[in-house]
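Section 5: illustrative case.
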């Protein structure tokens, strides 16, 4: 995972802040929360995945505590997961090299090497996301932990990771679901 993303993520967790739209530019009648969701959605649409993930994570913190509607929380959680999967660019790189290896036989050896490198980076990113999910849960942020663990799971699925890599994430998600039921 991109080190600058982890540093930014850590600073967000420590400081408890995130970028927010200029209140003067907030459309009339729109709540601050709705404006922040719209800002995060714009960042995601603009493929600014790191900042989108940071803002979505911040929104999950606040909305989970305030008892926001389940539909809104689920949408933010899904978008947060998507942004974290794409942050760092390894998932798109892996897919690109995979396509190149299959479509251009003359480039297959290099594409396979680059895809293998991207896979190693994705496995590292997935491990780091799981660690962050564990930290989120320890701090009482269940929805944020769930979004982060699901991002890890999606990355592992993308690269068809071995069971040894998948099992810790699956166990974490199972425990998270059990704790919700209790």
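Designed sequence:
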């Amino acid at each position: 995972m991109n080190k600058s993303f982890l540093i930014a993520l850590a600073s967000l967790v420590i400081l408890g802040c995130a970028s927010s739209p200029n209140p003067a530019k907030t459309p009339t009648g729109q709540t601050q929360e709705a404006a922040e969701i719209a800002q995060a959605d714009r960042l995601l649409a603009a493929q600014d995945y790191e900042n989108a993930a940071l803002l979505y994570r911040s929104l999950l913190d606040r909305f989970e505590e305030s008892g926001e509607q389940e539909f809104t929380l689920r949408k933010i959680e899904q978008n947060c997961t998507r942004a974290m999967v794409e942050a760092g660019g390894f998932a798109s790189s892996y897919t690109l090299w995979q396509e190149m290896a299959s479509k251009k036989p003359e480039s297959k050896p290099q594409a396979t090497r680059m895809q293998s490198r991207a896979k190693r980076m994705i496995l590292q990113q997935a491990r780091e996301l799981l660690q962050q999910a564990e930290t989120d849960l320890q701090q009482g942020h269940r929805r944020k932990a769930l979004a982060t663990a699901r991002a890890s799971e999606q990355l592992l699925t993308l690269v068809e990771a071995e069971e040894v890599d998948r099992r810790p994430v699956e166990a974490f998600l199972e425990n998270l679901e059990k704790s919700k039921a209790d």
